[in-house]
């Protein structure tokens, strides 16, 4: 029988933290005299009551959880957080039903960035701040999960980054708890630096803080309906582009850089591949944008760099309607949804290291075709890639594409057109935000979709953010039989 006490205890801690986070938008609305402060007060009280009740009734702080408990904890904690995070959306003065509120909360915590709110320009500060806080919490949560949970569960090749099996000399800090606290410090410092630079570029203080939180989290929630393009601030676009890129790099390497080993950032194969791939697509889209639209080269480069980095990292900001840049650019933006950033970052999608593993596997297979009796090993960061890692990555790819096809099929069955269905499925499972087309493209939102499509997309966001296996394994009967 699975012991649920450590699971409920941890969920209690998370809900108590979420309740404390609701106090920030409560104060923001109270300062301007908006009545939604009462919604946040009631939501915080209910969330804190449930969280503290779980803590008091379980009284079982987990010293070490089993693999089965970790699977259950990861999915149930994300669902519990989403449910309680949706309460302010449901009861605020936004006229949202529970489906819309749950969708918005799921999009926030999974750092997807898809929204159903149609009047952000007129929304109260509390709701705008709450959306930013959800993405900021989701960003730090996924980093900690990628450091502590996913390597232990050996999902999709993440066992490559298991700290316990590393040399002590290769550890950023000796224990996972210290690494998590160190990452939290770096995360907070980068957020503060981004907010300061945005404020100095001309953003008002509130907008600077909100966008800094969603930039570092590579989430993409904005305070304007027109996203970053509504500010018409080229300097801010450059700043946000740089910090989206920083959010896509492994945060553990930032700790090593602080401790006197900055060159490890460049030596990491993930970082080098990511830099080269981003540069290649920026140059390609710049050329197409410049050739197809009547703009100067500098503007084409700036807009291409911003939007390519935004979509590839899964941030989802938009500074222009890139869907109108021509068929080549549209195809590129659809393709780079499936790329993602580095493991151990706030980004989503397939991630760079898995493409590297597949490349090494394919290279070894081609060598075997030429020399059948030769012994060849693929490597990642100088270490041989085991059969277990190869099988795990290939299984992830298969399941990812299968899930994507099922989501697209369901959306098309519901009644969405082909482009909306296929790009909506892609943006959900890759946690990107905007899709393609007139309905859910970069200048639109998801408010007009039927409720059934919103629930399908919410499920896709959760599956993509938790790397598929973490959720799907719970539906296997043998999992519950032990």
Largest sheet: 2 strands, antiparallel
First and last CA, distance: 8 Å
SSE order in H/E notation? HHHHHHHHHHHHHHHHHEEHHHHHH
User: Based on CA inertia axes, which overall geometry fits?
Assistant: globular
Pick out the low-confidence regions.
164-173
Range of helix content: 55-70%
Query: How many helices in DSSP terms?
Result: 23
Strand portion: under 5%
Number of strands: 2
Radius of gyration: 22 Å
Task: Provide a descriptive summary of the structure in words.
The longest helix has 28 residues, at 387-414. Among the domains are: 1-95, no CATH class; 365-480, no CATH class. The protein has helices at 5-21, 23-32, 37-58, 67-85, 87-91, 98-109, 125-148, 150-153, 176-200, 205-216, 234-247, 251-258, 264-267, 269-292, 297-312, 327-336, 352-370, 387-414, 418-429, 437-440, 451-465, 469-472, 477-480, and strands at 379-380, 383-384. Helix content is 65%, strand content 1%. Strands 1-2 form a two-stranded antiparallel sheet. Mean pLDDT is 89; it is low at 164-173. It is mostly helical and 482 residues long.
List keywords for this structure.
single chain, 482 residues, mainly alpha, two-stranded antiparallel sheet, 2 strands, 65% helix, globular
Q: Could you outline the blueprint of secondary structure elements for this entry?
A:
Blueprint (H helix, E strand, L loop, with lengths): L4 H17 L1 H10 L4 H22 L8 H19 L1 H5 L6 H12 L15 H24 L1 H4 L22 H25 L4 H12 L17 H14 L3 H8 L5 H4 L1 H24 L4 H16 L14 H10 L15 H19 L8 E2 L2 E2 L2 H28 L3 H12 L7 H4 L10 H15 L3 H4 L4 H4 L2
């Amino acid at each position: 029988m699975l012991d649920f006490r450590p699971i409920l205890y941890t969920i209690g801690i998370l809900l108590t933290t979420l309740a404390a986070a609701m106090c920030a938008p409560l104060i923001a609305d109270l300062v301007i005299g908006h009545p939604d402060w009462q919604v946040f007060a009631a939501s915080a009280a209910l969330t804190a009551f449930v969280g503290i009740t779980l803590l008091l009734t379980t009284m079982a702080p987990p010293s070490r959880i089993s693999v089965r408990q970790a699977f259950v904890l990861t999915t149930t904690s994300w669902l519990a957080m989403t449910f309680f995070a949706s309460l302010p959306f449901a009861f605020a003065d936004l006229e949202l039903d529970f489906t819309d509120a749950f969708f918005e909360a799921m999009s926030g915590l999974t750092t997807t960035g898809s929204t159903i709110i149609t009047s952000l320009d007129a929304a109260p500060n509390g709701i705008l701040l709450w959306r930013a806080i959800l993405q900021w919490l989701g960003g730090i949560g996924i980093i900690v999960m990628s450091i502590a949970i996913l390597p232990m569960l050996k999902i999709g090749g993440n066992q490559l980054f298991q700290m316990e099996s590393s040399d002590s000399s290769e550890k950023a800090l000796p224990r996972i708890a210290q690494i998590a606290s160190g990452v939290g410090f770096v995360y907070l410092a980068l957020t503060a630096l981004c907010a300061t630079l945005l404020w100095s570029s001309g953003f008002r203080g509130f907008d600077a803080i909100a966008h800094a939180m969603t930039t570092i989290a590579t989430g993409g929630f904005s305070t304007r309906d027109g996203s970053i393009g509504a500010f018409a601030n080229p300097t801010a676009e450059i700043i946000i582009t740089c910090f989206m890129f920083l959010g896509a790099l492994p945060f553990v390497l930032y700790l090593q850089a602080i401790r006197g080993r900055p060159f490890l950032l460049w030596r990491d194969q993930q970082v080098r591949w990511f830099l080269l791939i981003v540069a290649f697509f920026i140059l390609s889209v710049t050329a197409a944008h410049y050739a197809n639209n009547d703009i100067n080269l500098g503007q084409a480069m700036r807009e291409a760099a911003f939007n390519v980095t935004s979509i590839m990292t899964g941030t989802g900001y938009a500074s222009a309607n890139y869907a109108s840049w021509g068929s080549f650019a549209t195809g590129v933006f659809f393709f780079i949804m499936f790329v993602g950033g580095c493991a151990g970052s706030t980004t989503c999608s397939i991630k760079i290291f898995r493409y590297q593993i597949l490349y090494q596997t394919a290279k070894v297979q081609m060598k075997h075709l030429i020399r059948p009796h030769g012994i060849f090993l693929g490597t990642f960061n100088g270490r041989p890639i085991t059969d277990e890692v190869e099988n795990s990555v290939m299984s992830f790819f298969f399941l990812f594409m299968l899930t994507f096809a099922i989501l697209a099929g369901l959306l098309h069955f519901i009644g969405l057109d082909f482009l909306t269905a296929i790009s909506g499925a892609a943006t959900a499972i890759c946690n990107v935000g905007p899709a393609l087309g007139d309905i859910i493209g970069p200048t639109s939102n998801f408010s007009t979709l039927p409720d059934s499509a919103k629930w399908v997309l919410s499920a896709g966001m959760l599956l993509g953010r938790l790397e598929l296996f973490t959720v799907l394994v719970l539906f296997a009967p043998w999992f519950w039989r032990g």
